[in-house]
Design goal:
Helix content: 25-40%
Strand content: 15-25%
Oligomer: single chain
CATH superfamily: Ribonuclease H-like superfamily/Ribonuclease H
């Protein structure tokens, strides 16, 4: 089923999404994307439903054809200070602030968002699988975050972030049990003893 274009009268619509909200380490990354009217691509979908190869190909297309796009990160220290929900929203606000084109309407994946300036917004549950602009934002957020985690992996190969992107996989949890936490792990996301023992 093809994704839909979100039409809001004559207003410029920006789609927003984030990546890394459920990870144990690394930043949360958000993107804001304004697509041209009528933008369609047969592969465009929620980034979680796409292979890395397809995400990387779509990233190039989106960055080349979007009217405007921006990507922003919020670091681990801020995540631990204000919690992951607020950090995710802050990352989306930062991405919106980096746009050179001011949108007249914002659509956001999920059910929680805080107003950005005086721009009307709509939160849409599973919006990354429904609307093109949110799907495009999900792809940019995911690919940019994965790129960042690959750089961190070079310094901490034992955690296998090149494979798990810092999600709580068995290999990642086993590495935490053996080597402990790094400066890039979220202190507010520390696994409990019973979670660590699950993989023993």
């Amino acid at each position: 089923m093809a994704l839909l274009e979100y039409n809001e009268s004559e207003k410029i619509v920006a789609g927003c999404d984030e990546a890394g909200r459920g990870c144990l380490a690394g930043p949360v990354v958000a993107a804001a994307v304004i697509l041209p009217k009528g933008f369609i691509h047969p592969l465009l979908n929620d980034s979680k439903k796409l292979s890395q190869t397809k995400r990387d190909a779509l990233r190039k297309i989106i960055e080349a054809e979007a009217i405007d796009y921006a990507v922003a990160m919020v670091d681990v220290q801020t995540i631990d200070r204000i919690n992951i929900l607020n950090a995710s929203i802050l990352a989306m606000h930062h991405a919106l602030a980096k746009l050179k084109t001011t949108p007249g309407f914002i659509i956001v994946d999920g059910n929680r968002f805080k107003p950005y300036k005086n721009i009307t917004h709509q939160s849409i549950v599973k919006g990354d699988g429904k609307y093109t602009a949110i799907a495009a934002a999900s792809i940019l957020a995911k690919t940019h975050r994965d790129e960042h985690m690959l750089l961190l992996h070079n310094d901490y190969p034992q955690y296998k972030w090149d494979k798990n992107m810092s999600y709580a996989t068995a290999a990642h949890v086993a590495a935490i049990r053996e080597f402990g936490y790094t400066q890039h792990h979220r202190k507010s996301f520390h696994l409990k003893a019973f979670q660590l023992s699950t993989f023993q």
